[in-house]
Design brief:
Helices cover 17% and strands 44% of the residues. About 4% of the residues have low confidence.
């Protein structure tokens, strides 16, 4: 895996006798302190430049989970007086993208599919669909959206709702902008009438059990009737 260091430079009041406190606001909204006069994590290094008004932070081996808003607060060492603040947004791209396909049943016998492509930034196009029905393949774009997930990954989504009285299969794809690489999910096959087969599969053992029970009860009733007849004759 490629190791990358990230340098964050901020313009901020770094007066003599002052120091910087660093915070990170996660994509989820949670705020954590990273550095006060010393850093809480060894991957972070902070300092100020010889140039006035410049503070910096270096993040070693930057991870997707380092995404967020980085906030620097400048204070006086002795008085703790507030001198100024500045921030920058950092989005770390995951270079090992992931594509996933979700399926559920909609209303009025429709089928709902959602595709998710997480990572790889702008290098991958938004997901699209291949629907195969009766040997014919058609491509389509669904209802799409994009955003940053809770871990800081740039994520795209696409959703389609399909209804058909014929069997069909669905695959989701996402192609690379600069190469021939294509991400592809597994294929979901929708067979019309499958639910009836499944119902029959579970119903058959019950029907057999009822049939056996009926035969046993009939035999027992016949024996009892015959025994009563013999007792009467005796």
């Amino acid at each position: 895996m490629l190791s990358v260091d990230t340098l964050i430079i901020l313009m901020i009041n770094t007066a003599s006798g002052g120091y910087l406190m660093w915070y990170r606001q996660k994509p989820s909204g949670e705020i954590e302190m990273i550095c006060s006069e010393s850093c809480l994590k060894s991957r972070y290094t902070v300092g100020t430049s010889d140039l006035p008004g410049v503070g910096f932070m270096t993040i070693s081996n930057t991870l997707v989970t380092d995404s967020g808003s980085y906030i620097a607060v400048s204070k006086k060492k002795k008085t703790r007086a507030f001198l100024g603040t500045s921030y920058v947004n950092l989005a770390v791209t995951d270079h090992t993208p992931r594509i996933r396909l979700f399926y559920g049943s909609g209303i009025a016998k429709t089928h709902v599919f959602q595709c998710e492509v997480a990572g790889a930034g702008a290098d991958l196009r938004g997901p699209y669909w291949e629907i195969t029905e009766l040997g014919h393949v058609r491509k389509m774009r669904g209802v799409g959206s994009e955003g940053i997930d809770a871990d800081g990954r740039f994520t795209r989504w696409s959703m389609v709702t399909l209804g058909s009285d014929k069997s069909f299969s669905v695959t989701c794809l996402s192609s690379h902008n600069h190469t021939t690489e294509t991400l592809r999910t597994g294929t979901i096959n929708i067979s019309q009438g499958a639910s009836v087969c499944v119902f029959t599969y579970f119903l058959a053992p019950v029907a057999c059990a009822l049939l056996v029970l009926t035969v046993v009860l009939t035999v027992l009733s016949a024996r009892r009737t015959r025994q009563r007849g013999l007792e009467r004759d005796g």
